Amino acid sequence: MRKTIPKKRTPIRRGKGPRRTPPGTLLAQLRKEPNELKKKMLLLGFISDELSRKGGFLFLVGGQAVETYTAGQFTTGDVDVTTTDKEATENLLSRLGFKKEGMVWLNERLAIAVHIVGSYPTRTEKIRTVEVGPYLVRIVGVEELIVDRLKAAKFWRSRRDSEQAVVLFNGFRERIDLEYLRKRAREEKVVDILLLLKG
Fold first, then answer.
1. Where along the chain do the CATH 3.30.460 domains lie?
2. Is it the case that residue 12 has pLDDT exceeding 60?
3. Mean per-residue pLDDT of the chain
4. Is the N end or the C end of the chain the one with fewer CB atoms within 10 Å?
5. Tens digits of residue pLDDT in 27-38
């Protein structure tokens, strides 16, 4: 999987062309894919591509976004996404063999659970894109993930979130918008521990 993390916000693109992957072909590919992260990202890429052809968008957020940015260093359970067209997204999941169980959509054969948590990420200023196979997946900005993890570390004393914030900051130090990150940290009252990250 080739990952592209641009310095600036990438303009959102619609479906990449007339060629479409049939759901059955995708499922066969996913069942054979040994890399769990790539398997999930291919699924999200397919759904994103299908939605974008109809003017909709899917965004990867939460723990799965952290897993993606850290190339699997931190793994997660449910795949949290936001979508501008919940009905179309749920229809696509159903076509791909997912069944709704409580708040998540589960495909037991693929061992993937998808949780639709809203329409848009809380903040969209720093949305980035990840290339996976023929697809593009939109992912919440690393700056927002760092701030979210710092909040959990400070107010919930979560060591895991603190570790994630450190890894994200160090891994993307040269590509982070530091001015924006400081602004968001001040807004969320975590600028004190952000300064500890920066050393």
1. 23-140
2. no
3. 91
4. C
5. 999 999 999 999
CA distance 101 to 83: 19
Q: Strand locations in 33-174, DSSP E? A: 58-60, 79-83, 99-101, 104-107, 112-118, 128-132, 135-139
**Taking a C-beta distance cutoff of 8 angstroms, is the pair 44, 60 a contact?**
yes
Is 30 in contact with 39 (CB distance < 8 Å)? yes
If you ran DSSP here, which 8-state letter would residue 188 be given? Answer: T
Please state, in angstroms and rounded to a whole number, the distance separating the CA atoms of residues 96 and 43.
9
Q: Could you tell me which of 87, 92, 90, 116 has the C-alpha nearest to residue 22?
A: 92
Long-range contacts formed by 168-173: CB under 8 A, 24+ apart: 168/66, 168/69, 168/70, 168/142, 169/197, 169/198, 171/69, 171/70, 172/5, 172/69, 172/142
How many angstroms separate the CA atoms of 54 and 163, rounded? 39
Q: Which two tokens stand for residue 69?
A: 């940015």
